[in-house]
Amino acid sequence: MPNFVSKLNTIAKNTDSYLKNIFLKHNRRSYLMESMKYGVFSGGKRFRSAVVVSTGKILGINHKKLIIIGGAIECIHSYSLMHDDLPSMDNDDLRRGKLSAHKKFNEFTAILAGNSLLTLAFEILTGSDLKLPQKTKVELIKALARCSGYSGLADGQYSDLTFENKKISKNNIISMLKKKTGHLFGFCCESIAIIKEQNARKRNKLKEIGIKIGLLFQIVDDLIDFKGDPKIVGKPTRNDERKGKATLVNLLGYDETLNYARELKKELDNQIKKYGIRSNDLMESVEFILNREF
Ligand code: GRG
Questions:
Q1: Which of ligand 1's atoms lies nearest the C-alpha of 48?
Q2: Which end of the chain is more exposed for a tag (fewer CB within 10 A), N or C?
Q3: How far apart are the C-alpha atoms of 45 and 223, rounded to whole Å?
């Protein structure tokens, strides 16, 4: 694991320096720049970028391309966290050990900075830094739009909020978690198949692996919320219980949920190892999810 953590740190550094360059290069006058940077450079692990890089290694994609795609995904992830913390959503004052964006600035700034990070992701994919045929870029943009919007992230968030304090079945919880968190991870893996112009079957296989990685990531996030150390997590824990969130932990209890997560990891290991020795980094990413404390 120390090996993967050091790889993760290098990927985080590369992703951050690419994104910093974007902000420097554009140098357009914008009152929103400061709050956008606050949202995107606040100490995230850049795990989604690491999943892009690890999957890219399987198919031998150039590192620079992977970091650019990872950077675009991290912009969308940061936007979703800024909006998730808003009073009308999860109403959280802390994120990554710091004030959440609407507390640091105000609500309308957090909304607009979040929206701007969402659109920046698409601007990054259209940019000349990303050396890919236009047709491939259009495919990437279409897939990213699908997993972020009404059939992915946004719909998952809608269910997460409407499920609060209701009795929700295990299957419906899993479907909500897949949309809320899984679909963006789905794109992390699917983007590699798109770049390689793979057929629909191969593309879907990678996408499904990504969605499962995201599901595991979110289940572990909920386990951490239940048992984690607030100092390490960077925000108060036991939030899901207080808010009556529909999580597997709240439905099945800690131990049964942990068993479910371990089974899911086994399934993922079996699917990933079929890609051979070059899939070792992706295997390590999945291993990291179960061992992480924040
Ligand atoms: C307003 C159209 C519209 C959509 C909003 C808010 C939203 C959509 C979606 C929120 C989805 C969400 C917050 C998912 C949580 C995923 C999750 C496990 C976050 C924590 O991820 P980490 O641990 O965070 O990777 P770091 O801090 O490391 O980046």
A1: 25
A2: N
A3: 18
pLDDT digits (tens, 9 = 90+) for 25-54: 877 789 999 999 999 999 999 999 999 999
Assess contact for 61 and 130: CB atoms under 8 A: no
Model pTM score: 0.97
| C-alpha 155 to ligand 1 mean position (Å) | 13
Ligand 1 mean position, distance from CA 267 (Å): 24
Q: What is the CATH number of the domain that holds 281?
A: 1.10.600.10
- 54-113 residue pLDDT tens: 999 999 999 999 999 999 999 999 999 999 999 999 999 999 999 999 999 999 999 999
Cα 36 to ligand 1 centre (Å): 15
What is the 8-class DSSP label of residue 278?
G
CA 276 – ligand 1 centroid, Å: 31
CA gap 111, 82 in Å, rounded: 7
Distance 97 CA to ligand 1 centre (A): 15
Please enumerate in sequence order all residues whose Cβ is within 8 A of that of 279, keeping only pairs 6 or more positions apart, or say none.
54, 57, 58, 272, 273
Q: Which amino acids bring their CB within 6 angstroms of ligand 1?
A: 44-45, 47, 77, 80-81, 83-84, 89, 96, 153-154, 157, 180-181, 217-218, 221
Domain total of the chain: 1
The percentage of residues in the chain with a pLDDT greater than 70, rounded to a whole number, is 99
Contact predicate 49/71, CB 8 Å: yes
Give the structural domain span for 36: 2-290
The per-residue pLDDT for range 138-171, each reduced to its tens digit, is 999 999 999 999 999 999 999 999 999 999 999 9
Q: Pick the atom of ligand 1 nearest to 89's CA.
A: 6
